Every structure is written in structure tokens, then in C-alpha cells.
Amino acid sequence: MPSPSSAAADTVQPSGTDGSTPTATVVGSVDVEKVASKEKDLEGGAAPVEPSTAPPPGPPPFPNGGKRAYLTTLGGVLVLFTTFGLSNSWAAFQAELSNHQLNEYTASSISWIGSVQLWALFVCGLPSGSLFDRGYFQYQLAIGSALWIFGMFMLSLSKEYYQFFLSYAICLGIALGLLFAPTLSCVGSYFSTRRTVMMGCVAAGASAGAVVYPIQLNHLFRSQGFAPAVRSVAYIHVGFLLFANLLMRPRNDIPPRKPPPALPLIGSFLKEPRTWFVCLGCAFVMLGMFIPIFYVQVFVQIHGANEVVVTYALAILNAAACVARLTVGLLADRFGNLTVGLGVTTLIGGMIFAMLGATSTGGAVAFCIVYGAASGAWVTIMAPSLISLANSVREFGTRGGLGMLFVSFSALIGTPIAGAILRATPSSDGKPSNYTGVCAFGGCSVLLGTACLTVARRLQVKRKGTWRV
After folding, report:
1. pLDDT tens digits, residue range 349-395?
2. Residue 20 has what pLDDT?
3. Contact 219, 358 (CB under 8 A)
4. What CA–CA distance (Å, rounded) separates 230 from 170?
5. How many Cα atoms are found within 13 Å in the side-chain-facing hemisphere of 416?
6. pLDDT averaged over the chain?
């Protein structure tokens, strides 16, 4: 897909040999075919253009900037700051519920609440992405925002396990599923040359939220209690999501065209080996990646870290993730998403094993910084890696949604499996829990995913004829 220059382009070539969707010939932002047609009508008519010489209509070049593009990006930051930022703060809820409201339940049982929310988020990615491709983004944004606010206030009223499950896992999970993938796809549809950078900025909003919310919640849980703490966050979310709905707009310059049926399109994707290796690679990485994010606060607490570090461990991790999400896009746009992603996922796998050594205050801080940067970088790269397989902007939502479907099952079972391993592993050194099995499971899962992504990268290099993939 060619990108526009600041000056008016004379022509834009139709589809190349890579099978990408052809683009209409444009002068500035005006369709040449339409202008030529009008001129011929005024001249009294001319011979019609032969069907073989007229390219099929397609989307115009990517704006790569402009007021609407940047306002949409800002709105995307607010959406992910509000929603995925709170989702990434689950460790604060895990600690609070384990110590108070649900102290009679095991860590594995409580972690199901957070993991089912992630599952709902990712499993909704496929239908949500298909709806985005069909032009329903504005409705998804409004309905998802309303459902999120409803879920937050219901969470503040929860006292029993099933109430927490319905409000946090189901209601907030579905709302996040309606918002997450379409928000990234909407921002990505405005950019080609700087797509990963801008999507990284949006993803950084999630990390920024995950810095603010654990600090806010940990203090308010102690000073005011669970219900007032959650309601204080919910009021903030009302304002942010309202602004996001006012700021975000999908592109209106793409000629309307009914997309192909979703199931045949998905079937064609699944005939490609590269699709399988990318999706499985993402799934195995996510199977292990969320384990430290869910358990880091409890881990550093039982290993005697400073109380200040315990309170701010998750915030430190997500602050490092925020910085990484803002910067990794520059590398990914230059060297390719999969190329950079292989180094990032290798680091994630190694750091999960290294978590076993983070048993002091200094070690805990160092682990949170490095792991936060690596995990934040991967979350930024994952979605662009999935949609980089697309041949057209009209495939963005479905491509991303298919990958999210694979990831959803990893998100569902990853942390509960870790909780079950934790419960079954005999404790040692006088500590109440032994994380050796948990870290081995998480680290090996991520490294297996890295192996799948390595194969996917080789296939993409062969297909595109360049190492920059």
C-alpha cells in the first residue's frame, strides 16, 4: 500500500505482484476516475473506458498524519488508558481479594476472574474485528464504553465470588473485547510508514493506566475500602471514555465496499502456514507472559521486599512498559515487527526464569523494570505483527481478530495453570510458596512461542523478498 506524500501525487499505481488491494488513482485527495468521468460528461460523452484498463476501486493512500488521524490516536490512548490499563492492574485486585473479600478461595480460583476477562477480551477480537471491517466502529466504541462503565459500578457493589466474576470477568471482558482490537485497527488504518509507532503510543496508554491504577487502588483499598476505591476509578473512566467517543473517527475516505464473508476469508487465511505460525507463536508467548504480571506483587511480598516496593512493584513494571511501548515502534518500523519481536520474546522467556532470583528489594526493582520493558514492547508489536500479514486495509480487523482468538485461550488458561502449579509445588526455604514450577512453565511457553515466530519470520522473508518483516 503506497503512502501519500505531502504534495499532491500524480498517480498511484494499482495492485502489484504481492496481491495487495489496488488503490484508486488520485490527485491530491480527489479520485481521478470520478473527475475524468465528469469532464467527459461535460464534453458530451466519450468512449467508455475498457473494463480491462480500469482498476477496481480501492482505498486511497494512508494519510500518515493530519488532524483527524492524531485526534483518533489521542482517543485511542484514552480508551486503552481506561480499559486495558485497569486490566493490567489485576495484581492489585488479586492481592486485595486474596487478603480480604475472597480469602477463603485459592490463588488459582481468584486468578480465574482475571484470566477469564483476558479470554473474553481476546475471543471477542474476531467478531469485533469483522464488525470493524464492515464499518461499525462508532457503534462498537459507544456500546463498549457504556458496558465498561456499567461493569465498573457493578464491580464496586460486588461481595461474593460470582459477583466479582460477572462484573469483572464477563461484563468488563466483553466491553474490552468490543474496544481493544477495533481501537488499534482504527488508528492503524491512518498510518503506513509510522503505523507501529502510533499504535505503540496507543498501547502506551494502557501501560500509563497500569501505572496510575495500582497506586491509586492500593492506597484507596487501605484508606477507604474496596467499594469507594473502585467507584473513584469508575468516575474517572466516565470522563475519559466520553472524550474518546468525541475524538475517535474511522476513515471516511475509503470507498464503501462490502467485505467478503468472514468465514471464507478466515478459511483462506488458515490455508497459509505463516498465519498458523504467527498465531501459535503469539498464543504461546501470551500463555506465559501474564504470569509475572498477575503474581509479581504477591511474589515480592512473600520474599521480604520493602513495603514500598511491594506497593509500587506493579506500577514500576508498567512504567517501564510504557517507555518501551513509546520507543519500540521506532525499531519495529525500521527493522520489521517480527524481526524485533524475536529478540523481545526471547528476553521475556529469559526474564521469567530470572524472576526466581528477584528475592531482594533491589532484585525485585530490577526485575520489574526489565520485565516491564520487554512485556510492554511485545504487546506493542503483537497486533502490528498480526495485521502485517494483511493484503489490504480491509483485512486488518479480521487478521487481528483471528490472532486474538488464538491468544484468548492462552490468556484463559495461563495464569490458572500457574496457580495450580503453585499450589502443587512443595514450598522450600521456609517460604509459603515455591515459584520454581511456575517460572519453568511460563518461561518454556514463551520460548516455544519464540520458536514458532522464528519460522513465521522465515516464511514472511521468503514471501516478501526482504529481511525487513
Report:
1. 999 999 988 888 888 899 999 999 999 889 888 878 887 777 766 67
2. 38
3. no
4. 17
5. 16
6. 79
Tens digit of each residue's pLDDT (9 = 90 or more) over 312-321: 887 888 888 8
Which regions of the chain carry the CATH code 1.20.1250.20? Answer: 67-464
Please state the rounded mean pLDDT for residues 251-271.
71
Furthest-apart CA atoms within the chain: distance in Å: 93
Report how far apart, in Å, the C-alpha atoms of 116 and of each of 112, 160, 166, 171, 388 are: 6, 17, 10, 11, 28
CB within 8 Å of 249: residues ≥ 6 apart: 68, 71, 72, 138
Q: How far apart are the C-alpha atoms of 283 and 277, rounded to whole Å?
A: 10
Q: What angle do CA 391, 396, 400 make, to 5 degrees?
A: 115
User: pLDDT tens for residues 46-58?
Assistant: 444 444 455 455 5
Measured in whole angstroms, how far is the alpha carbon of residue 120 from the centre of its chain? 13
Q: How far apart are CA 345 and CA 352, in angstroms?
A: 11
CA dihedral of residues 164, 166, 167, 172 (deg, nearest 10) = 120
* 257-263 average pLDDT score: 66
Contact 288, 115 (CB under 8 A): no
CATH 3.30.310.50 fits 67-464, yes or no: no
Torsion of CA 326, 329, 330, 335, to 10 degrees: 160
pLDDT of 45 strictly over 50: no
For residue 392, give the nearest of 5, 15, 71, 70 by alpha carbon. 15
Answer for the pair 218, 99: CB distance below 8 angstroms, yes or no.
Answer: no
Which residues, 6+ apart, have CB-to-CB distance to 161 below 8 Å?
102, 105, 109
Question: What was the pLDDT predicted at 260?
Answer: 65
Q: Which of 240, 92, 231 is nearest to 151 (CA)?
A: 231
Beta carbons of 416 and 423 less than 8 angstroms apart: no
- Residue the block writes with cell 496510575: 212
CA distance 446 to 452: 10
Position 423 scores a pLDDT of 83
DSSP letter (8 states) at residue 393? G
Element (H, E) at 30: strand 30-31
